[in-house]
Amino acid sequence: MTRIAYVNGAYQRHADAGVHIEDRGFQFADGVYEVCEVRHGLIVDLTRHLDRLDRSLSELRIDWPMTRAALVIVIREVLRRNRVRNGLFYLQVTRGTARRDHVFPKDGTPSTVVVTAKRTDASVIAGKNANGIRAITVPENRWDRVDIKSVGLLPNVLARQTAREVGAQEAIFVDADGTVKEGAATNVWIVDRDGRLRTRHAEHGILCGITRTTLKDVTSALGMEIVEEAFTIEEMLEAREVFITAATSICFPVVAVDGKTIANGHPGSVSQKIREAFFDIAEKTVI
After folding, report:
1. What SS3 class is residue 219?
2. Quick one: which of 238, 266, 224 has its CA closest to 132?
3. Residues 269-285 pLDDT 10s
4. Predicted confidence band at 203 (pLDDT cuts at 50, 70, 90)?
5. 284 is an active site residue
6. 1 falls in which pLDDT band (50, 70, 90)?
7. Largest interatomic CA distance in the chain
8. pTM tops 0.90
9. Counting beta carbons within 10 angstroms of the beta carbon of residue 189, is it exposed (0 to 12), middle (13 to 18) or buried (19 or more)?
10. Which entry of 149, 216, 260, 273 is annotated as an active-site residue?
């Protein structure tokens, strides 16, 4: 089946889709994005993803490319045309196309919007859930505004590549003081030695993940308490469980960090309970 993308008002073959060479997303990484899971023909947590898109656009002073309602129509149509019932959609908005100059283009320059969709392999996700994944730690070297979901992801790319080269699946950024920040594309959680479920506070220094936010609803329904506080590499290595969360994976257990086994080296019960309850509690929007 031919994949279809939406670019600036037109649905076109994915293989033929493109933007101008002076699009500011290409020239300056001057744009933002969202990735959202689709499961059983339902879009997961769409409202929260669009709320975060609104915040990211506002922080970078980029205009919405269309009304929110119109964008939802486009997202649904891209999913339908690609026959995605289990997978994800990717949405990117940039400041638009203009002569290359660091300052903003003139008022009225249209934003660029791209929406794509693809299916995901459920067996790959199931395998990672059953066996767990491996992670490494890397020094924090990103810009200070990681709370904005910007397309400027070069440090994340290099970190994830470093992880792959040593047989790991995620890289975890760590501050100079030894406290854990977040993964290259995930939020990080631990069940500490006292049995407390902990994740770093999201006021500053990490992206407030949508899955992270929905997990608060999930844990509340399960009668679990979340402690939002920083933890060190040492606390992570000594934890009963470590897991990462993201819209594309929900909740992957981490069984080793920097080559050191976490607990007994097998996925833990807390991450399993959270993962099993997530879809029932998350917001679901019909395509």
Report:
1. helix
2. 266
3. 999 999 999 999 999 99
4. confident
5. no
6. confident
7. 58
8. yes
9. buried
10. 149
